[in-house]
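Data availability (excerpt). The following record was deposited with the supplementary files.
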Amino acid sequence: MRAAAVLLTLTGLGHTLWNGVVEPGTALAFGTVIACGELARRDTGAGRDPRAAENTAGDHRPAPLGSAGALGYALLGQNAAQSTHHGVLQIVAVAGAAALAGIVPHVARGHGPAADHLARRVLTVAFAAVCFQPLYHSGRLDRWLGQSPYLVLFLLLLLGLTALCDAVLAAAVTRARTGWPYGPLLRDELRAQVGIGSAICATGVVMALGVAVAGLWALPVICVPLLLTQMSFHRIAAIRTTYRQTITSLARATEIAGHTPPGHARRVAALSCAVGRELGLSQRELTVLEYAALMHDIGQLSLVDPVRAGATAGLPAAEARRIAELGGEVARQTGVPAEVAVVVERQADPYREQPVAARIVRAVNAYDDLLGGTRHPGGSLEALEQLRLGTGHDYQPEVVECLARVLARGGRDRVVRVPPG
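Predicted structure:
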């Protein structure tokens, strides 16, 4: 995908430089919007921490204003009631060059966006331009729809197809990079399109139609609502990050108190999320799973006599259930979502009575307890074998097999190494 985007951008730039920029004022105005959108994006540190980029909900659109400006330019047919004449290659050139210009300050600070985001931007904008510009310049779109309301419906339909194209590309890239199931990835990408994606598509249509009627002066007015929306999404993302860091810090209380080995909660959380992805859980379900895995041992803080090495997998069923119920009560008092507390308190139940997240946490916690923090390959195989022996009552067979596939594909070091919250 990156190679195709680079080749397409270079072709567009070469064609534009050779033939000159058609209607340079319009190209400059939309290029400025795209560059400003990139400048306004919030540095998330994704370039430094790939795992953070993969697990950050709502980070599918790092520069919504830039995306909307590029789509608006791709769908532009008129400027102040005068026909435009820019083509697909110039659209790709302007969108690519403006995006690159806008990310320069971020790259200088070491927080540049992932290359996949820029590649998807180029390919989706090219898709929209290829679908619209030939129809407009040939006159068929005017003959079929003219300036009737059906033109707006056509543009919305086109942007819907563009959003679908972007979701397909994003899911394919993540699948190639991580090996996670494609279906759940595509589902999460489509759900992400409903939020900020809808605002991007709507703003792109309004940009094209507004400039067609009022000229380039309409651009600043149209950009303000999306810019405010972008700022709101930044605040929501910051709140989510702070919330996750708080839960991670709370989970470390058992380690600080000496109830569990160092890093146990983070290892269980990371490996549980990997198993959850293998099972096809949605992004929201993965978030609940991660929080519950981080807090799964929080009930040990209520014990007078700590469990030896914090390993609850080998405890009698009644004792393990009592600790889990204590953990659920503690989790509720911290204000976490009710689903998280339910997973924590039911992790010691027979797996047939548990929600899926509790089944995953129970199996992964037992694996880490059995492994005892070692990294010897034989120890890992022996721990998995013991889990398989307990699939009749304690562990769901599908979860254990997913755990085995995750470990075989990535290895324990690669899967469970999680940066401190």
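Summary of structural features: The longest helix spans residues 218-251.
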